[in-house]
Amino acid sequence: MNINRRNFLWSAASGTVGLAAIPAILSASMPTAPKKQKGILSSLNKGDVILFQGDSITDAGREKTKQLANSPGSFGSGYAFLSASSILNEFASKELSIYNRGISGNKVFQLADRWQKDCFDLKPGLLSILIGVNDFWHTLDGKYDGTVVKYENDFRQLLTLTKKMLPEVKLVICEPFAVLGCSAVNENWFPAFDSYRIAAKKMAEEFDAVFIPYQAIFDEAQKHAPGKYWTGDGVHPSMAGNALMAEAWIKALK
Amino acid sequence: MNINRRNFLWSAASGTVGLAAIPAILSASMPTAPKKQKGILSSLNKGDVILFQGDSITDAGREKTKQLANSPGSFGSGYAFLSASSILNEFASKELSIYNRGISGNKVFQLADRWQKDCFDLKPGLLSILIGVNDFWHTLDGKYDGTVVKYENDFRQLLTLTKKMLPEVKLVICEPFAVLGCSAVNENWFPAFDSYRIAAKKMAEEFDAVFIPYQAIFDEAQKHAPGKYWTGDGVHPSMAGNALMAEAWIKALK
């Protein structure tokens, strides 16, 4: 990833190339999902539970006392809220219960610590996980000494247990992503951070999960507007960035 | 409107008729907009301002100190947030500024009281207004003595001034709606409330505004799930109801 390349792309998009010539972000960045992965939302049963899990990107300022299904305050204002709202509208007759249990700052081992209460007890039929940016980010200030090997091993252990406890659960693994040139993401992130993205993709393949390629999506988005438009700090998405994430999530599962 | 008819529709939808046979809510309830009204979002200029105005349905718990553009906290969790997020994603290259200035409890004359600060000062290129349910609702407990004639006259005065101050502004008038059989809406609302809906549509015609027929949309939605699924009290939408409203809003302006 190269910040000059990004700037060039943005300049080109704003200038003579013309915006109409740029393909839509998702059609360019998100290949059509394999057939076996399509139609997951349509295949859900009446009364099924969907669970969004992850860190601050999923948390998005939700309240953590009541933690209700299908309730705005319990969802925060991120991609999980936007995705859930859209699903509850489009699949109204399924009477789904959708929860957000993301917690700001979490790394993958912290999901494991609360997995009984915040996953198994909810009996999800569909489980979506976005985790990994803190597993890397928190190593930069020396306050966390985890490695990508630990991230991968912890993630594999979590998913193995999940498949054991919920054999029928449909899995979504969202790629951790970082946008260079924003306030919290600089050249020091690369290529080290890329290995976390690769590990997440490997987990999706091992566990037959739908994989949402958010890095490619945010890379492509920068042909339409600068990185800071999509995420102020390079990690936490703006309204536009969250809407793009939700659009991708829904597209992958429809 | 008849609650027994509603129950029949929902029973039929849940039973032998089969959900696959029910057309999608918006294609059934929202006729294709006249050609002149299509493409409004695409026709906006770079840097244009969009303003959502109204009562609690628009307010949706937004913060009222900073009142920032394109900021989740300043948007609350309603249809305005969902619509704005989607617009900021899809029309990223336009670098739009989108505001929510709905205030809970407002009637149309209260919009007028704050119109300089909460409309003209923002210089919107596109202005969307959803107002009217309180103009009726607050008369039921005897605390407000306004009539539908006052609602219509006040609304006309507000729109006349708006067109004078912002001759180029594109207008959206959202139909006030109420869903029978929910906690706050009973038979006493009808047919009196219908006259407010009719007045709002009349204003849309007089001022060449896009009209979003939310009553027909929520009526149609009840073929897919009960009224309470879309709005607990019959006035304030659920996550599903807000997503349906946003979908309709976007569909009308694309």
Radius of gyration of chain A: 18 Å
Number of strands of chain A: 5
Largest sheet of chain A: 5 strands, parallel
Instruction: Determine the mean pLDDT of chain A.
Output: 91
Could you give a short description of this structure?
Two copies of one chain form a homodimer. The first copy, chain A, is α/β, with parallel strands linked by helices.
What can you tell me about this protein's structure?
2 copies of one chain form a homodimer. With 254 residues, chain A is α/β, with parallel strands linked by helices. The first copy, chain A, has one domain: 3-Layer(aba) Sandwich (Rossmann fold), CATH 3.40.50.1110. Chain A is 44% helix and 9% strand. Chain A is built from 13 helices and 5 strands. Chain A has helices spanning 3-14, 25-29, 40-43, 56-59, 79-90, 108-113, 115-118, 133-137, 148-165, 192-206, 214-221, 227-230, 239-253; strands at 49-54, 97-100, 126-130, 170-174, 210-212. A 5-stranded parallel β-sheet of chain A has the order 2-1-3-4-5, sandwiched between helices. In chain A, α5 (79-90) crosses α13 and α9 (148-165) runs parallel beside α10 (192-206). The longest helix of chain A is centred in the middle third of the chain and has 18 residues, at 148-165. The two termini of chain A are 31 Å apart. The interface between A and B is large, with 36 and 36 residues.
